[in-house]
Write a structure and sequence with these properties.
The chain is of the alpha/beta class. The protein is built from four helices and three strands.
């Protein structure tokens, strides 16, 4: 994940980004974000998977990307 961030910054002619928000659907995503200190938005239609993401500290979990207005509110765009 850190390598991808570095590559993206290089691609966009930047040394770093002002902020990072990761979107993932697995517990490993939430754990990796926690280890990196990155905020994570979860995507999980199944209530059990959504609960697992929340248990890992993911505050915002969406069932899908259909509520674009709310999604962009959460990321601050």
């Amino acid at each position: 994940m850190q390598r991808s961030l570095t590559r993206a910054a290089c691609l966009h002619g930047r040394v770093e980004f002002d902020s990072v928000i990761y979107v993932g659907d697995g517990v490993w995503d939430a754990r990796a974000c926690r280890n990196l200190g990155w905020p994570c938005i979860g995507i999980a239609l199944d209530p059990i998977r959504a609960a697992r993401l929340r248990a890992e500290g993911v505050k915002d979990v969406f069932p899908n990307y259909e509520d674009a207005v709310r999604f962009f509110e959460v990321i601050g765009a």
